[in-house]
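We include this case.
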Amino acid sequence: MSRGSWLVRWVLLPALVVAVAFLSWWTVRTTQDLRRLDKASIIESTLLLAREKVDRAEQQIVAADNAAFHAVNPDDLDALALRWLESAERITPSIRSVLVLDEQLRLVRHVSRASDSEASAFRAYFFRAVLPLLQLETESLDVHKHVHRSLEGRPVFVTAIAREIGGRRHYVVLEEDLAYIRQTLLPGLFEDPAERGRFNVVDEDGRLVVGRPLAGGDFVVSLRFSATLDGWRLSAEPRKAEEIAARSRRRPVYDVVLVGLSLLVLVAGVLFLTFAARNEQRLNRLKSDFIATVSHELKTPLSLIRMFGEMLASDRRLSDKQRVQYLGIIVRESERLTALIENVLDFARVERGRASYDFHRNNLRDVVVRAVDLFRSRLDRDKPVISVELPQSVPDSELDEQALQLLLFNLLDNALKYAPDGERVIVRLRHEGVRFTIEVQDDGPGIDEEDSRRVFERFYRGRRARDNGARGSGIGLALVQHIARSHGGDVAVRNATPRGAVFTVALPLREPEPEP
């Protein structure tokens, strides 16, 4: 195992697993904290809004009370009706009537905005049910006392204050107008131009006093009217409480999905990194094998050329037959060496992305014939027999003759390497509409399924080549695929029946441009 592979497997992968686990835990925890903070923030802002409404309502009630109290002068009670009633509806609209009592809690003056019968009924009700609850004798001076409750089945809201002027103690009691408070004051406060929330007011028994029922849920807050309307509560919720609640319920699902997607991305990254490391390791191994193979392929013909060259250059007497034989070996090995070097150079250009093709008007039938004849001339044996099956004629096409000759040389050389005992190799050319098909079929044992999937990879050599020690660099079929695709086609391989392998190159018909 290489150092890089060891680092990936035993250092980087465990570190990534730990990082993924920590990130998942931190993400879940952070999203939960954010959800709690978001909920707390919404509740706090709603609570502030509700407190603002309660404070404004109580301030208006207290301001009206103060205005009414200042209008009472015990030394000039005859002017009370004139002074207060003139401005009561404008300055103190929440007050229905004013009662002034002396030190013995006897009624001194009663001024009311209601009718005489209603005022008389309230006085009787006040002395019978309300006054005993006020306990005015025990109250400190200038301190407001509010009583808001239901007495004898009738709601009442009064405010009282004890005063002392000129050594004389007197009491002022204000009858608050609950109808005005319910119908005008509170609804006016609930109008929210910014549409920040919804509001209502309920009494001590939970009955709705003002507003409409709220949706309820986790975002509803409730505050008491502690200073004035004792027993009533103002409830508020955000304007889009249902949407916020639904989003809050959906958010854990989104968080889980996002965490899951993050985990998938990280796992995919880990898998990709592992695959890339293994692929790089495999490529390095293949490159090492390629260098060793090419070195061996170069060494063998060079050794033969040198050996037979030295024999021809020596003073030994050789027959003409031997001389011709030695020269033939030198020529064949030189051609073999040249082909190998050309393959390596072409592959290097492909790897650098600098491979270029010279497309010209040509006839593919003639190209195939010339390539097969040239390859036959390089063979040093009679078997296998290379037979060619060609149509009578094919249309001209734009193609690179040298590149297609290299393609056929590599396919024929591959057939000889993997089927050395075969009787023949068949080269077929077919023309079907706008497509050419070149087939090279050998008479060998065929190709394994795994090799058929990877045989066109660079530096890859099939199992049979590795087992039998067949010569080759592992770049010939990669060049075949590149040339075919550069012409707009592709190459494939399959097993023939009953035996052998068939390499099929499909090329499109490229109509040549008309000559000027």
Observations:
- The chain has three domains: 1-239, 266-356, 357-508.
- The longest helix spans residues 241-313.
- Residues 357-508 form a domain with the Heat Shock Protein 90 fold (CATH 3.30.565.10).
